Amino acid sequence: AQTVTQSQPEMSVQEAETVTLSCTYDTSENNYYLFWYKQPPSRQMILVIRQEAYKQQNATENRFSVNFQKAAKSFSLKISDSQLGDTAMYFCAFNAGGTSYGKLTFGQGTILTVHP
Amino acid sequence: EAQVTQNPRYLITVTGKKLTVTCSQNMNHEYMSWYRQDPGLGLRQIYYSMNVEVTDKGDVPEGYKVSRKEKRNFPLILESPSPNQTSLYFCASSGTPYNSPLHFGNGTRLTVT
Fold it and tell me: Could you tell me the end-to-end alpha-carbon distance of chain B, in angstroms, rounded to an integer?
């Protein structure tokens, strides 16, 4: 079974600073995809960034980047120059092929608050 | 506009009264799935569908039914709701379940008393 763990239930950061949200996962698959989704208070789920496991280069999307450590099964999200609009719950998600094709597993979520 | 439409947005019902939450997508996606979101547990997959007439259980399927008679629609059915099914529900779709990001509906807040 695949599992995803987000060990930080809540985080806070000052506007314009950098914050890192952690995520670890467990799988026996070798090829898979990892995602970070954002859920603002409107409760709409929005894709932030995704990473393919076979790509060693870390994905980046503007102020958002990941630190993907495949051997350690770690997939952290770094938010640079934090903005008030980044306040949201963030979910790490994992999607493998093989026998788990079609099954998407989410972490417990991290509530991020950006303070002015 | 490409979207996943989920209705209703809020629903309050009583134990045992059958209900259906509708989900429709206009992106011609083959893959659709349902999730429930609970505090401290994140999102958990209930059922998913690879294509018309093809459905499979996720991690928490007990007490739920789904059907996929048309590509665009994927309703979630609670035949006999119980209070432990009080939750926030999301429908989602994507082109493929593996590498494509999910497009989510706006969620249904269900309360079963």
Answer: 36
| pLDDT of B1 | 87
What is the pLDDT at residue B100? Answer: 81
With CB atoms and an 8 Å threshold, state whether B43 touches A95.
no
| 8 Å CB contact of B45 and A95 | no
Instruction: Please judge whether A106 and B44 are an interchain contact, meaning their C-beta atoms are less than 8 angstroms apart.
Output: yes
Give the pLDDT band (50/70/90) at residue A99: low
Q: Does the beta-carbon distance from A47 to B90 stay under 8 Å?
A: no
A91 in B contact zone (CB under 8 Å)? yes
B30 interfacial to chain A (CB closer than 8 Å): no
Residues 6+ apart with CB under 8 A from A45: A37, A38, A39, A91, B90, B92, B102, B104
Decide if A50 touches B, using CB distance below 8 A. yes
Going through A1-116 in order, the beta strands assigned E by DSSP cover 3-5, 10-14, 19-21, 24-26, 32-39, 46-52, 60-61, 64-69, 74-79, 88-96, 104-106, 110-115
Q: pLDDT value at position A28? A: 84
